[in-house]
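Run: sequence + pyridoxal-5'-phosphate -> complex structure.
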Amino acid sequence: LRCILLNPGPVSLSDAVRKAAVSTDLCHREPEYFELQDEVRSGLLDVYGCSPSSWASVLLGGSGTTALEAMLTSLLPRDACLLVIENGVYGERISRIARIHGIEHEAIEHPWTDAIDFEQVAEALSNGLFTHVAAVHHETTTGRLNDVQTLAKMCEHHGVQLLLDAVSSFGAEHIPFDSPALAAVAGTANKCLHGIPGLCFVIGRRSALQNSAEPPRSLSMHLPLWLEKQDQQGTPFTPSVNAVLALREALRELERHGGWEGRRARYRDLAGQVRNGLAAMSVEPLLGENESSCVLNAYRLPEGFTYDRVHDGLKQWGFVIYAGQGSLVAEMFRISTMGDITRYDLERLLAAIETVFKR
Ligand SMILES: *Cc1c(COP(=O)(O)O)cnc(C)c1O
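>> structure
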């Protein structure tokens, strides 16, 4: 059974991207690979018009969490003090990474359905102890798009650097690359960029990458090592060659479809279709449209329905949806509209949901 994936990555692929992944065999020490690597690295910078003189993209094998862990462990110097903003699973994951690596940190914890409390952030930053802030851009737990523009401004004001988990927003939402406070973002190939899993990346300011943790906290995740080799048309270890082939194709598609703004418009249209269709069946969204990302929306399960019943019913119709996390698991389900899907697919989804809810 080939399903339409409405989970937040991996996504349904276009035929061209799927074919590109297995299009050829490449040795990662040959010039053909390095041309590919160069094209993908500069393609990633081009998505948001980041100048290669001040920004660098570093490709890494692994999932989104790998990119996140590499960004935090590499770009937080040994004497750094980190403020973590938590309003969901992924914010909490940042604190967990800091704890594991013995990075000095403190967290501002919000209930998962809440927006960032900027008064609390300003108060924390005003003590002058923090050197860095880490936050999640699109908190996939609830579908909330955190206001990182305001956060970046606040970081600028207090002279601290901002590290962003943009794993589920890179390629489809606005990211404040023009803020001098923004030091780096972590991203992945298999969410809004529509590539295959196994490849992730960090886009960082070259100045931040030069002021990294010394001695390193890791060998295989230390970004300056990857950066140095990739800048010299090299690679320290075996890269995920096939995922890089797929990402090149996916980036070309993104450009043809109007870049990140084109993708955002597309996602907004598709997410709106689902939202309106569900509203007609009296299914309520967890958050308002103005606080939600274009990428994924969370909905309350109708009375008397368990997630498993809805999930299993829809899977029979060829759709994979996604459960809630943690304490929200019994209350909600999530639908992402990333990937190579159409309005027609979602019309069929809504018809299937109606059937499942009628039983
Ligand atoms: C998906 C996701 C991650 C990382 O997930 P992986 O399973 O490691 O790829 C991190 N942060 C956010 C916001 C995400 O949506």
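>> summary
The longest helix spans residues 259-280. Residues 8-9, 63-65, 68, 90, 136, 138, 140, 165, 167-168, 188 surround pyridoxal-5'-phosphate (CB under 6 Å).
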